[in-house]
Design a protein that fits this description.
InterPro entries: CRAL-TRIO_dom, CRAL-TRIO_dom_sf, CRAL/TRIO_N_dom, CRAL/TRIO_N_dom_sf, PI_Transfer_CRAL-TRIO. The protein has 356 residues and is an alpha/beta fold. 46% of the residues lie in helices and 8% in strands. It has helices at 9-26, 40-49, 54-71, 79-83, 117-132, 158-171, 186-195, 201-204, 213-223, 226-243, 267-274, 283-287, 297-303, 323-328, 344-355; strands at 91-95, 101-106, 142-147, 176-182, 207-210. The longest helix has 18 residues, at 9-26.
């Protein structure tokens, strides 16, 4: 099934006016998004997210408006990618069969071995706010494809996954269509098992762990057209290949077009949303057009004439991980290691799980 089909219009016709009335009585409004809190789309999503409880939907929507006032997501930037090109590799690359934006990410392309909740939320917010501007037809959700090739131990931090999931669930309810996780390790599997009990069950059912090529092909053919499926398979193949080759960093320059394969996205997406930006010389011109889609910050920067130079990312080694890291990620040392300085056996076991 491509997407869950709701049979709740009769219920929504009755409840949307009630929620709108409650919100208007709260006298909350966003200066740069005056219709956000009372739009049909917003009212529908928040009612569904709170199981049609008007009081709870109102509470969550009020919190979201306050967050949007302080965070100002329409003007969101990823300063991490601006300061360190390719810090995040997550980017929109096209659309699925339903017109939902597809966001792709590969750990092997990212220029960091360790993310924080803060940088992850900032980058994700930038992406999904811009992805909304490209939704086609009746689409209201997005799809994530996460390639775990090159995933490091710090990126398996349960706090990181939980923090991002909570932020998206709280402030972007009913926006997630599907998450496909490709090439995941045993370590990722353990982390997912640990955090999914704290995540909304509806969200949990939307995440699919895909380990083999046959399952990947099946999911891709169901969700994506041929052009998009082939682009994803080729991008994943190239990232897997480069991860094994210490002499190549070509795939890490994902903001550069190439004749053989354009890592910026499918031809349809590039032609419609990236190439029109080639005539724009100042980033401020794009920022002034609130409704205009902006791609990954480094794709945009490259179009504006910025030159980014990369070095081969240093692979995280076992000796780079300290006991403090294990404590930060709430990883418990084995009993016999509690008096040791290194926790070497635990670290070694974790690295072995990352390779599986």
């Amino acid at each position: 099934m491509l997407e869950y089909v709701y049979d709740d219009e009769e219920k929504l016709i009755k409840l949307r006016p009630e929620l709108e009335k409650a919100i208007r009585e709260c006298d909350i409004e966003l200066e740069d998004e005056p219709d956000f809190s009372v739009s049909t789309d917003t009212l529908t999503r928040f009612l569904r997210a709170r199981n049609y409880d008007v009081k709870e939907a109102c509470k969550q929507l009020k919190a979201t408006v306050e967050w949007r006032k302080s965070f100002r997501p329409l003007k969101a930037k990823c300063t991490w990618c601006e300061q360190t090109p390719g810090y995040h590799s997550m980017r929109q690359i096209g659309h699925d069969k339903l017109g939902r934006p597809i966001v792709y990410s590969s750990f092997s392309q990212a220029q960091t071995n360790k993310n924080s909740v803060e940088d992850s939320i900032a980058h994700t917010t930038y992406l999904i706010e811009n992805a909304k501007k490209t939704m086609q037809g009746d689409a209201t959700m997005w799809v994530f494809v996460i390639d775990c090739t090159g995933m490091t131990l710090p990126c398996c931090n349960p706090k990181l996954g939980f923090g991002v999931a909570q932020a998206c669930g709280s402030f972007y309810p009913e926006r997630l269509g599907k998450i496909l996780v490709i090439n995941h390790s045993m370590m990722f599997h353990h982390v997912w098992q640990a955090i999914k009990v704290f995540i909304d069950p509806k969200t949990v059912t939307k995440l699919k762990l895909i380990k083999n090529k046959e399952k990947m092909d099946k999911h891709f053919s169901t969700l994506f057209d041929e052009e998009t499926a082939e682009w994803l398979k080729e991008e994943i193949r190239l990232n897997e290949k480069e991860a094994k080759n210490d002499d190549s960093i070509e795939q890490q320059y994902f903001w550069k077009a190439r004749a053989d394969h354009d890592p910026r996205g499918t031809k349809t997406y590039v032609d419609k949303f990236i190439k029109p930006l080639e005539s724009v010389k100042e980033e401020e011109e794009i920022e002034s057009q609130v409704s205009r889609h902006r791609p990954h910050p480094n794709i945009l920067g490259h179009l504006m004439g910025k030159e980014y130079a990369l070095k081969r990312k240093q692979k995280l080694k076992e000796e780079d991980v300290k006991v403090e890291d294990l404590k930060e990620y709430e990883i418990k040392l084995e009993e016999e290691e509690k008096t040791k300085d290194t926790g070497s056996n635990t670290i070694k076991n974790l690295f072995n799980k990352l390779k599986m």
